[in-house]
Amino acid sequence: MVSRMFRIETEVDKERRDLLRSRLRAANTAASPILRGLRGTPGERELPLHVWVLDHHDRLAGGLVGHTWTTWLHVTYLWVDERLRGAGLGSRLLAQAEHVARTERGCRGARLETWDFQAPEFYQKQGYDVVCVIPDYPPGITEYTLTKRLS
Questions:
Q1: Closest by alpha carbon to 99, among 56, 58, 64, 60?
Q2: Exposed, middle or buried by CB within 10 Å (0-12, 13-18, 19+), for 9?
Q3: 58-102 pLDDT per residue, tens
Q4: This prediction's pTM
């Protein structure tokens, strides 16, 4: 039970969000020797990683947006124009991002999330393993988290 000395609010508050993030980061740093060791090193920061495919008119034909953090690549978005799917562009985008992450940023793993109607089988063909399945997220859809060892 919450004491009557406290008030609960549900408003969006960016200043409080930033304060909360800072306090959580401090608590996590204090609790984890691994995170403590990361503080102040280049591995501490997320670095964007983008790979683009342009057609002969310099129009976007596909792309991958993600970031690296510590020794991991996180693929956030991968998209290929519907007319070009099946031509290997998705595989090339993913391979290029993995290559940059591994050779230039020292990443040893990659992770991503996808829905059942998107591309879980595609990622499995690229060597990714399903490590988490969340049914009904959102209702009627299953979300998959997949990972791959890059080293």
A1: 64
A2: exposed
A3: 999 999 999 999 999 999 999 999 999 999 999 999 999 999 999
A4: 0.87
